Amino acid sequence: MDKRSYLVPTLLALGVHLAVLLLLAGHWFDHADPRELKPRHIQAQMVDLGAMSQALEKQTEQARRIEAQRKKDEQRKQNELEQVQEKQRQQELAAQEKVLQEQQLQAQKVKELTAQEDLAKEKAQQQAREQKAQEVAAKEKAAKEKAAQETRAKQAAEAKLKAQEQAELAAQKKKQAEDQAKLAAEKKKQADAKAAAQKKEAEARAAAEKKKQAEVAARAKADAEARRKQEEQQRKEAEKARELAQLEKELAQEQRIAADRASQQLMVSMTDYINGELSRNWRVSSAFRNGMEAVVEIRLFPSGEVDSANLVLSSGDSGFDNSAVQAVFKVDRFARVAEVDPLTFERNFRKFRVKFRPEGLRW
Amino acid sequence: MKLRLLACCVLMLLAFGVRAELMIEVTQGVDAPTPIAVVPFGWNGGTPLPEDIAEIVSTDLHRSGFFGAMKRSDMLSFPQQQAQVFFRDWRVSGQNYLLIGRVASVGGEQLQVTYELYDVLKETRVFGEQISGSTRNMRDMAHYIADAVFEKLTGLRGAFSTRIAYVTAQNQGGGRHRYSLQLADADGARARTILESREPIMSPSWSKDGSKLAYVSFESSRPGIYVQHLASGKREKIQSFAGLNGAPAWAPDGQRLALTLSKDGNPEIYTLDLARRQLTRVTHHYGIDTEPTWAPDGQSILFTSDRGGQPQIYRVYLSDRRIERVTFEGNYNSSGKLTQDGRFLAMVHRSAGAGAAFNIAVQDLKTGRLDILTQTSLDESPTIAPNGSIVLYATQQGNNGVLAAVSLDGRVRFRMPSSSGDVREPAWSPYLQ
């Protein structure tokens, strides 16, 4: 609770007490005259209602300034609060839903604080009004007593005094009415201010809500955008991965083709080599004829050395068959076969067949 | 249906295990004889043997054109038993085969010859045999061994044990000659005279069983055709018509002779049934038809005729007397002789063009290709070994005629051992029983 909130009632109370003391000061000084003590006279003291009125107005003006100051402070506080809220909302944006809830809670707290403050203010005002009313009542009572005394003391001037009292009473009533009106106006003003504050708060809330919705929408949009971007990214990554896979596949294909080509070249090279070796060692007899054909199955050791050579298809001519088998054994060792990798050797050169079919013979 | 499916599945499963096996095709080889080493045969007797069996075998194989015999001077060792054979040595020296043997005396002139043939590259024994004979027929044993080795390694029957007949003419001065019909081993060795005459002897021809020779002799007033039994030496005059009687040729069945007779005014081809002495005229043409030779199937006769303006070889089919020309290359083709399979025709050939010589040529009757085998100038009278590997012919060396031989592919040429006099008209015998 801010100390300033008690200042106005305290000042008002002091003002009322001071006014009462001023009113009673003359009466106290009259007690020094013994003559005036003996008879029972009602001593009337002239009360300067105008001065009182001015004092009251001054007090009211001061109270209004205080109130204005208070409102200003409240406005400033409100602004600060809003700034804080704005800041919190910004933080909420970062912290998303959780921060928003916290902000709501904070707003609720602020609202409650404001309501408590208002309630305290109203209570203080009410106490001040009640105190004032009590003082007024006491003052009326004292005035009545004084009037009665004066009535009793001055019956002659009773009417005038009565009139004056009535006037005072009326003025006082008027003043009370005015005070009440003021109080009502103040209350209304406070209510208006409260309503305005509530409206402003509602507007702020609405704005915040709107902003929040906008933020949510923006966030949703951002999320959607992020999702879209993520999907796009995923699509691109998938595309990239697919391209990479395709590239790897093509690379593997190329490597396979290259390997096949190399293997084919190796095979061609090796078959040419074997063919050359056999041709150099195959003795073609004059008894051979074009169209003769014999097939020999050759088994090699990995060193290229001939393990065996067996006739698997005879030409029908034993001399021709013998010459084919002899050609293989004459080579004895196909040296370059030793350079072939073990897999290729096992697949192709561990065992293979050679067809001896002479061409270009005279007959 | 299920069975079919099951069979398909089994076949497919089998197919997984089947992989195309590498097949290399060799179409070219080396045009060279197969190297063989014939090691001198061991001999356990005291006195030297009259013949060197290993040398005869080596010469036979070498002259066949199929083998290249290793010189003895190049041999690192002379093994006689299998235990003494170091294959590596023979392999290093480039030999494919190794023949070793040993001769043992079994009492008197009787000998026992053991020989073994080894495959140097496979380091295996190919075969071996033990034969018996006497010191007098050591050449026969050697030719027998050569025949066996030749047949084992080439698949062709060897012809080293066959004979050749030929005519020699000794100039006795004064324009007189002495003619002899000679009979010799296929390598020209052991020649012996089976007929001598002051008159020319021509065209000897072997009967298919090798027991008889037919020939033309001018020993009487006019040329006559004679048949002589080799075993007994008995001679028989078959024909002696007026005019030309010549060029007898035995039919494959041994019952007929083809002859050239001019008894009808013009040399024509006839056949003579020896049993019935019946002549059959085969050709009817105003040109000269001569030098008949039988096709192996006995269904046709090839002969030389100038009916086309130049001597060429024709074929007449006995069934319908249809005649076809066989040779077309060159301006002279005569003295045709067919191989036993009837595919190749050896002949005297002269190419077209001035200055061309008379050479021995061979024509593949299947393809029509003709190859000239010799490079000498006056070659004549070709005769073919029964296995078709060698063509023997007469040629001129200086002023004398000599015998020479060439392999059917022209790769191997060699001269027969020189005989005294002018040698001509060779005739190679068939396989002898």
Automatic annotation (TrEMBL), chain A:
Basic and acidic residues: compositionally biased ranges: 121-165, 175-241
Subcellular location: Membrane
InterPro entries: Tol-Pal_TolA, TonB/TolA_C
Pfam family, one: TonB_2
Membrane topology designation: Single-pass membrane protein
Domain of life of the organism encoding this protein: Bacteria
Region (Disordered): 58-83, 121-241
Gene3D superfamilies from the UniProt entry: 3.30.1150.10
Major location (coarse): membrane
Swiss-Prot/TrEMBL keywords: Membrane, Transmembrane, Transmembrane helix
Protein name stated in the entry: Cell envelope integrity protein TolA
Organism of derivation: Marinobacterium rhizophilum
Gene this protein is translated from: tolA
From TrEMBL, chain B:
Family matches, as InterPro entries: 6-blade_b-propeller_TolB-like (IPR011042), Tol-Pal_TolB (IPR014167), TolB_N (IPR007195), WD40 (IPR011659)
Subcellular location: Periplasm
UniProt keyword annotations, A-Z: Cell cycle, Cell division, Periplasm, Signal
Main location: periplasm
Signal peptide annotation: 1-20
Domain of life: Bacteria
SUPFAM superfamilies, per database record: TolB, N-terminal domain (SSF52964), Tricorn protease N-terminal domain (SSF69304)
Domain TolB N-terminal: 23-125
PANTHER family hit by this protein: PROTEIN TOLB (PTHR36842:SF1), PROTEIN TOLB HOMOLOG (PTHR36842)
Role, per record: Part of the Tol-Pal system, which plays a role in outer membrane invagination during cell division and is important for maintaining outer membrane integrity.
Assembly with partners or alone: The Tol-Pal system is composed of five core proteins: the inner membrane proteins TolA, TolQ and TolR, the periplasmic protein TolB and the outer membrane protein Pal. They form a network linking the inner and outer membranes and the peptidoglycan layer.
Protein family per UniProt: Belongs to the TolB family.
Protein name: Tol-Pal system protein TolB
Gene of this entry: tolB
